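Hi support team,

I submitted a single chain yesterday and got back a structure, but I'm not sure I'm reading the token output correctly. Could someone confirm the output below corresponds to the sequence I sent? I've pasted both exactly as they appear in my results page.

Thanks,
R.
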Amino acid sequence: MKVEFLGTGGYHPNDRRHTACIMLADIGLIFDAGTSAFRIASRIKTKELDIYLTHSHLDHIVGLTFLLPPILLNEVDKVRVHGNQRSINAVKDHLFAEEVFPVDPPFEFVELTDASEMIDGVSIKSLPLNSHPGTSVAYRLDWYDKLVGMKSLGYVTDTTVDGSYDEFIDGVDVLIHECYFADDNQEWAEKTGHSYATAVAELAARTNVGQLVLTHIDPLNPSDDPVELDGMREIFAETILAEDEMVLKI
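Hi R., thanks for writing in. Yes, this is the structure output for that exact sequence:
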């Protein structure tokens, strides 16, 4: 399974990072649709797309508007947008308000349930998170690879590490997790409902994940090492920083 990081920043784009969007092009599965969603069109491999939203803040949904050209050009036949009812309502009532976006894209909106969903043999589970303003949703994927057996992926963003989802992500092969702040901004992480470096590394260590991939980085810090990776790797060695357009094989 190939995971493409179309956007790895938070809040607003900068010269290095666009905002959140992760794509599994082979099965038409996408997490979030931030400013980087303009990159989806050049990577489409399926006639149907399923977009799973973590929440409805603008840096995670603005790119839904960019899906109109592929639809009009018949590059995709159907786009389903999955999310909790709060997020679906926000997208319908505000992002696609006539005064904001005068064309109503023919999306199908699907409310998340407690049950697992299946896309092309991949099980998708969701878990509500409550520490970020407006709440968020964590996702876990599990699938069978005929060459290596069971594989798994977790995606968690826009949350404070609080222990509430440890069991949900336990043992995943790859955990994609936000790391908005370095440790020196721990106070701001707690105020804004985001995560800081040491807490994320400790989470990965205690939940026995295979690899930790950091995303949703503070756009005010476009440096090569915005989260002090050496310190994180002392806690959890298999930690890497995602970059826009990076491709990861799981």
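A quick pointer for reading it: The chain has a mean pLDDT of 97. Let us know if anything else looks off.

Best,
Support desk
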